[in-house]
Amino acid sequence: MLQDAKTIRYYQRITDALVDQWNRGYRSDDLRRYIAGYLAALRHSDALEPYLIHRLEEEVNRFLFDESNFAIAQPQPEPDYR
Fold this sequence. Notes:
This protein is an all-alpha fold. The protein has three helices and no strands. Helix 1 runs antiparallel to helix 2 and helix 1 packs parallel to helix 3. The chain is elongated, with a radius of gyration of 16 Å. 9% of the residues are buried. The mean pLDDT is 91.
């Protein structure tokens, strides 16, 4: 579980971007490449400590492999009481 505020903000940014890209039609391979690039940029910029980046990577991968995060909500039909 992430506890550092800065790491949590990065997690939220990455996961929001993943869902947005999924809705645009990108799929798992593309999302994995996006994650790899994002984490590489964090490592290169020294924005976070290496152990925090590793934890972030674990959490983002857990998010990616949970299918419920990318399920499209189906509207429920309204009952007709007539």
